[in-house]
């Protein structure tokens, strides 16, 4: 009797602990690989590490140095330009395509599939394709010149004034279909009877969109803004393949700056401090967003 | 929508304009792939004399053979094929591991909440958003200490760990929608943690497994950052190899080989997208809803 009670007790204890045992490995991995590593990077960013990590604490000196480097300013300015254009164009194009596609269009499914496929591609592939198309000697420039406009020039890829805009072109091609999908899902969620009622009142379609539909899409605007900002801050692959940050460092972004300093130039601490700056940028937009999302769910 | 018969000339014009714009964008999205394909089957001299969209006179598959089998990438000249297999060897275990762990975590977080499980979820959610640059240096060091810095298993570990946040989120949100009464009834009947998972949750999980597998496959296949930071030479994934192929400065730039290589590197994810696109889009919007 007693002998059988003991294992039962043990098994019921085990059973009670099972949920925790199951998530334990992921919890440990998360604490180490996400939060532990962030603190580790924070610490490296406050040391004198160059090629090899050193653990001499120097406080914020690397951050002061970082903000005195011209190249870092160029990277941040590029991020502003790139981020603004990328977000604005993707949102505009995405919203327009979603509204148009929502007008009972024939072959909608095929069109949607075509708009979205770039998203399945790697940025490296996208970059390779656009590097070829934007190549001044052989790409679009050549195409237009052969068509008769012989003085046409389109050299953004190799022009240090314009190279960041070349990155925008490829990035918009890759991501605008995604914004379209978000807006289309939002549009499909709107109750048709609202639109019918407005039509009965004699409102024109553009007016209905401007006054009723687009304002109700506010949450979609919000989430697509967050996601696009996040993509922009993390952008790395596309720049590496398309321009390698060049000419010079004219199309550098913080992500390529970080890679260059931490991995190619052997300035670990400076690379770490630049990655911490990226981390702060992302957190500045994500934390309020997640907070409001989680709070909204709790109240809903 | 008014029926066709009731359309005014203004409405007809508006519909023509809408179709025209949609059609133009179809061309815009298709053009790069079309140009890649066209370039990949042209001989080099036709590339030098023709334009982006001029059709090839002599169709050749030599660039494809070269990209796959004998193009120079880094120090080897065995083409992209070895790197392609690297990616496959990396994707399969990483996708399976992260999906399996995500399913188990999601089950716990949805149906077996314990003190602190909400906090765990919130921390994980935040983890979805960190720019990976912030973990690169410690990760490089850790992989070195584990003796994994040059191996495919290092990348498998990295992708599994950083994929966990997303897969957990997918499964958690899915399992929240499974009626809790079902779970409670099974508990009254004496079913335990594992039995409920096996008999109730898993049988209804097929769609979310598809989402997780498809999503993770594309994410991990397309990754470049981890690949370029944590692998060298023969262990690199295909995205890194493609970049090396395209950005190698040699005297003669073989654009046709570059384009063939790019298409080869894109084929698996394109295939997944066209075969299981609905799950891909669902993963996309699931990721978007949470943030």
Indicate the topology.
The complex is a heterodimer of chains A (300) and B (291).
Chain A: H1 2-44, H2 61-66, H3 70-101, H4 108-116, H5 123-133, H6 140-146, H7 163-188, H8 192-200, H9 205-216, H10 218-234, H11 237-242, H12 254-264, H13 268-299
Chain B: H1 9-40, H2 44-49, H3 62-70, H4 81-111, H5 117-127, H6 133-145, H7 152-176, H8 180-188, H9 193-204, H10 206-222, H11 225-230, H12 238-246, H13 255-290
Helix pairs in contact in B: 1-13, 3-13, 4-7, 4-10, 4-12, 5-7, 7-10, 10-13, 12-13
Give a nutshell description of this structure:
The complex is a heterodimer of chains A (300) and B (291). Chain A is an all-alpha fold and 300 residues long.
Derived from helix and strand composition plus strand pairing, the structural class of chain B reads mainly alpha
The largest contact between protein chains, plus residue counts on each side, is:
A-B, 98 and 96 residues
Strand content of chain B: under 5%
Evaluate the radius of gyration of chain A.
Answer: 26 Å
The oligomeric status of these chains comes to heterodimer
Low-pLDDT runs of chain A: 1-5
Task: Report the helical percentage of chain B.
Answer: over 70%
- List the secondary-structure elements of chain A in sequence, H or E: HHHHHHHHHHHHH
Major pleated sheet of chain A: none
What would you note in describing this structure?
The complex is a heterodimer of chains A (300) and B (291). By secondary structure, chain A is an all-alpha fold. Helix content of chain A is 74%, strand content 0%. Chain A has helices at residues 2-44, 61-66, 70-101, 108-116, 123-133, 140-146, 163-188, 192-200, 205-216, 218-234, 237-242, 254-264, 268-299. In chain A, helix 3 runs antiparallel to helix 10, helix 5 packs across helix 7 and helix 12 crosses helix 13 (268-299). The longest helix of chain A is centred in the first third of the chain and has 43 residues, at 2-44. The radius of gyration of chain A is 26 Å and the shape is flat. Chain A starts with a helix and ends with a helix. The model of chain A is unreliable at 1-5 (pLDDT under 50). Chain B is mainly alpha-helical and 291 residues long. In chain B, 74% of the residues lie in helices and 0% in strands. Chain B has 13 helices and no strands. Chain B has helices spanning 9-40, 44-49, 62-70, 81-111, 117-127, 133-145, 152-176, 180-188, 193-204, 206-222, 225-230, 238-246, 255-290. Chain B is flat and about 75 Å long. At the A-B interface, helix 1, helix 3, helix 4, helix 5 and helix 6 of A face helix 1, helix 4, helix 5, helix 6 and helix 7 of B.
